[in-house]
Amino acid sequence: PDVSFKYDDLKVALAAPYQLQRKPEAVDLGFGKYFTDHMLKIHYHRELGGWQKPEITPFENLTIHPAAKALHYAVQLFEGLKAYRGVDDKIRLFRPDLNMHRMNLAAKRSGLPMFDGDELIKCIVRLVQIDQEWVPHSETSTLYIRPTLIGIEPTFGIVAPESAMLFAILSPVSAYYKTNSDGAVSIYADPSVVRAFPGGVGNRKVGSNYGPTIEITSQAAKLGHQQVLWLFGPNQELTEVGAMNIFLVYINEEGEKQLSTPPLNGLILPGVTRRSILELASQWEDITVKEEVITMDRVIQLNKQGRLVEMFGAGTAVVITPISNIGYMETNINVPTMEQEHPVYQRLKDTLLAIQYGHIEHPYAKIIT
Ligand code: COI
C-alpha cells in the first residue's frame, strides 16, 4: 500500500490581492458555477516514491498531457461534501470521514493510489479556512467541496497509472435540482436503461456513472420529468433517482409507517445522507426503518391500496427532494408525498439542516472554525 501524504507537509501559497475575485451574492448561485480563490493539489509519482507534499495554491487551470489516462479510460473519481455556515457563524463539515472512506474504495477499484483520509480532511479543512469568506452567509446556500482524483500518466495502457493528481476545489452553491412549483419532482422510469449492474461500479463515486445519464435525463425532461428513476433487472427494482438515493414511506403489513430504501447490494451509491437518514429515523419511535428490495410492482400495488405515503430522493447536493409523480410505461403514478400534513421527508430534512447549520449540536457535524 502507498504511504499517504501528510497534512504536516502542506505548503501554502496564498493568492496575491489582485488575484482575489469578487464573491457572488448568496442567492441563485446555481451548482458549481463559481469557484473560490484557492485550491488543493497533491501529486502522486510512483518513481518519486508515491505521494508528494500537499499544496494549496491560487485557483488555476490544470495542464495535463492529452494522453492522460483520466481522459481516455475514465481513470478518475470524485467526492462531494459541503461546508455550512452555522447560526453561530461557525463553519461545519458533515461526516467528512464517510466521504474519505468512499473515496479510497473508488481509488482501489480504479487502480488509483489510496491515502489516509484523516490527512486529506485536515488539508481540506485548511483550504476551507483560507477561503472561509466564500462559505455563504445563508441557510439556503453552502460551499460545495469537490475532491477529485485523476490518473495523469500519459500512456495508453489500461493499467494502474504511475502518476496521479488529487485536487480539491470549492464552489458556493444553492439548490442543485430543478423542481415543480410545489418543490417536488416528477420522475421518469424507462426499464430499457440501467445506471449500474451487479459487479459494476454503481456503488463507487466515479465520473463514468454520471456522464451516461445525461441523454436519458434530457429525454425525460422532454416528457416533463425532472429526474430519471433508475430501475434494474427483470423485477424492475428501484435503485436510485437522478444522482440521489431513493426512499419510500408506506404503511406496512403490520399497519405501521415504514421508511424503506434499497439495500447496498452493489448497485447503490452508499450515500452519506442516505446513511444519516437511516440512523436518525431508527431512533424515532413512530416509524419502522428497513433496507429492502423495492420493485415497481410493489410501488404500484402499495399505491393502489392507498398505502404509499411518500417518496423522496436524498443526497448531499439537494439534501432531500420530494417526489410527486412517476412516469412509467405510458402511465402516470401519482405519489401523495405533497399531500401529507406532517411528511417524514420534511422532518428528516429539518433534522439534517438543523445539524448542518448548527441549530443543534450533533456528532455528525465537525466544527472547523
Ligand atoms: C449529490 O450530492 O447528491 C450528488 O450526487 C452530486 C451530483 C452533482 C453528482
Automatic annotation (TrEMBL):
Stored InterPro entries: Aminotrans_IV, Aminotrans_IV_CS, Aminotransferase-like, B_amino_transII, BCAT-like_C, BCAT-like_N, BCAT_family
Pfam family, one: Aminotran_4
GO terms of molecular function: branched-chain-amino-acid transaminase activity
Record keywords: Amino-acid biosynthesis, Aminotransferase, Branched-chain amino acid biosynthesis, Pyridoxal phosphate, Transferase
Cofactor(s) in the UniProt record: pyridoxal 5'-phosphate
PROSITE patterns given in the database record: AA_TRANSFER_CLASS_4
SUPFAM superfamilies per the UniProt record, alphabetical: D-aminoacid aminotransferase-like PLP-dependent enzymes
CDD domains hit by this protein: BCAT_beta_family
Enzyme's top EC category: transferase
Record's catalysed reaction(s): L-valine + 2-oxoglutarate = 3-methyl-2-oxobutanoate + L-glutamate; L-isoleucine + 2-oxoglutarate = (S)-3-methyl-2-oxopentanoate + L-glutamate; L-leucine + 2-oxoglutarate = 4-methyl-2-oxopentanoate + L-glutamate
Record EC number: 2.6.1.42
Coiled-coil region list: none
Modified residues (N6-(pyridoxal phosphate)lysine): K205
Gene Ontology cellular-component annotations: mitochondrion
GO annotation terms (biological process): L-leucine biosynthetic process; L-valine biosynthetic process
Family note: Belongs to the class-IV pyridoxal-phosphate-dependent aminotransferase family.
Name listed for the protein in its UniProt record: Branched-chain-amino-acid aminotransferase
Organism of origin: Pieris brassicae
